[in-house]
Amino acid sequence: MKVVIIILVLTGLVATGCTTDAKARAEARNAYLAGQNAAIQRMQAQSALSVTVIGPVQNSTVPWVAGLTLAQAIATANYLSPGEPSQITLTRNGEDGNIDPSDLDRAAQLTLEPGDVITLKQ
């Protein structure tokens, strides 16, 4: 009789230990997934607060700040080509607009919005 009780007690402890291990693995997995989700949300928030510059530039992502102009974004992206671009296209909300590269006054006054994409062509 004592042997049966000891076996039942030990079986209960082993089963409890397995449940605890499974619970620990589930908690670890949930913590990992929560960390991944937080990282994805941070990356999405960062991309929403930036301007993308496509073309011969050193930095294709420019952090957006209130009042950022087209000329400032191109300078911040560090334009690498020796000559002026032959064409500048600003894409905002899926709509393209061409900007004359020789019109520096417009480039200096044209303010950008988060998510804008500037394409510089040679």
Summed up:
By secondary structure, the protein is of the alpha+beta class. It has helices at residues 2-48, 70-77, 104-109, and strands at 50-54, 61-63, 87-92, 95-99, 117-121.
Please specify the SSE layout and strand pairing.
Layout: H1 2-48, E1 50-54, E2 61-63, H2 70-77, E3 87-92, E4 95-99, H3 104-109, E5 117-121
Parallel strand pairs: 1-5
Antiparallel strand pairs: 1-2, 3-4, 3-5
Mean pLDDT: 80
User: Which parts are unreliable, with pLDDT below 50 for 5 consecutive residues or more?
Assistant: none
CATH class of the largest domain: Alpha Beta
Which structural class is indicated by helix and strand composition?
Answer: alpha+beta
Q: Count every beta strand, where a strand is a DSSP E run of 2 or more residues.
A: 5
Q: Looking at CATH, which topology of the largest domain would you report?
A: Outer membrane lipoprotein wza fold like
The domain tally reads 2
The CATH architecture of the largest domain is Roll
* Strand order across the largest sheet: 2-1-5-3-4
How helical, in percent, are the residues? Answer: 40-55%
How would you name the CATH homologous superfamily of the largest domain? Outer membrane lipoprotein wza domain like
Strand content: 15-25%
State the order of secondary-structure elements, H for helix, E for strand. HEEHEEHE
- From the N-terminal CA to the C-terminal CA, the straight-line distance is 91 Å
Count of individual helical segments: 3
Q: Whole-number radius of gyration? A: 29 Å
Instruction: Sum up the overall morphology in one term.
Output: elongated
Largest sheet: 5 strands, mixed
